Amino acid sequence: MKVIIWIIIIALIVSLVSTIWPLFLILAILFVAWKLYETYYYKSPAFIAVKQRIDTYINDCNELNRHIESLKDTTLISNRTDYGDASYKDSSHWDYKRKHLQGQKYATNVHNCSRTVCDNARKKPFEYVCKYFGIKATEETLANYESILNNFEAAEDGKISIQTEKKKILDSIQNDVPILIKKFSSKKLEKKLGFEEVDMSTAYFPKYIFKYISSGGNASTECDVIMDIDNLNRFILFLSEKIKFNKSVAGQRALMTSKLRQRIKERDGFICKQCGASVQQEPNLLLEIDHIIPVSKGGLTTEDNLQTLCWRCNRKKGNKIN
Ligand SMILES: [Zn+2]
């Protein structure tokens, strides 16, 4: 029965192709002509001239892109005990599927747990992250999460800056690029001009995973706690509450939250305290919040130890300390 259906389908395709094959031919010729035109254009003096004209802006964009990537770079905070490695074999003869057991992962950000723990983690994510990933509410941990938030938020701001800046650069060459290239080759155009690819995804936010797999391996539930900007802000408050409870010095200083970052930028008039670059002159300028005396050297998150720096100055400063 199945064979007959296949024969009918193939016969239909063959008859269809035989009647419209001239259309295929025309399409193929058009495609080849387009590819030739495209290759010719990107080698033409006209294109090279456009590229050279905006070269500095593109380099600046690319450097910002690399800076954003370095801001995203962070290691997940987890202080779980190292229990060592072991090998495991399932030698049972029962014909179970056990698909969830087979796909089971053991990673620092995954906690394999009972169904109850998985459910409760959903209700009280921060409590459970602290408990099962060994995160202690200390000044040091708090400072680490604050610096992660400070970097991630700058990275998210940077993504918007780079997008608008890129659009501005591309708009400035609107009249110099043939309409066909603009319409059908926009991605290639960006690449040929020298723009490095910008990763707009938020997949870099660290994730704590609670995973329950039934003993037979046929059922599983998962609770993901994603440390995005919103959750980081809330986690910082959560940690600081715990620390305050223990009567530490945390209560004496400000918390590096999104609110404080905004307040410092407003206080400094959205101007880089180092080089004087401002949002007024450069609307897409990425501004960051910097500890004048770094936290690593005992600097505190107090308003007088914080300043607004443009990403270029902050990048230079960061390089110097390292
Ligand atoms: Zn600056």
Give keywords:
3-stranded mixed sheet; DNA Binding (I), subunit A; 322 residues; single chain; binds zinc ion; 12 helices
Notes on the protein architecture:
With 322 residues, this protein is mainly alpha-helical. Helix content is 55%, strand content 8%. The radius of gyration is 28 Å and the shape is flat. The protein has a three-stranded mixed beta sheet, covered by helices on one side. The protein has a two-stranded antiparallel sheet with strand order 4-5. α3 packs antiparallel against α7. The chain has a domain at 253-322: Orthogonal Bundle (DNA Binding (I), subunit A). It has twelve helices and five strands. It binds zinc ion. Residues 272, 274-275, 277, 309-310, 312-313 line the site of zinc ion. Zinc ion (ZN) binds next to β5 and α12.
Count of helical regions: 12
Q: Which molecules other than protein and nucleic acid are bound?
A: zinc ion
Average pLDDT over all residues? 88
**In CATH terms, what is the fold-level topology of the domain at 253-322?**
DNA Binding (I), subunit A
Total strands: 5
Ends distance: 72 Å
Class computed from helices, strands and strand pairing: mainly alpha
Please outline the major beta sheet: 3 strands, mixed
Indicate the CATH class of the domain at 253-322: Mainly Alpha
* Order of neighbouring strands in the sheet with most strands: 1-2-3
What sort of overall outline do the alpha carbons produce when their principal axes are compared? flat
What is the alpha-carbon Rg in Å? 28 Å
Topology pattern, helix = H, strand = E: HHHHEHHHHHEEHHEEH
Q: How large a portion of the residues is in β-strands, by DSSP E?
A: 5-15%
CATH architecture of the domain at 253-322: Orthogonal Bundle
Low-pLDDT segments, ≥5 res = none
User: Helix share of residues?
Assistant: 40-55%
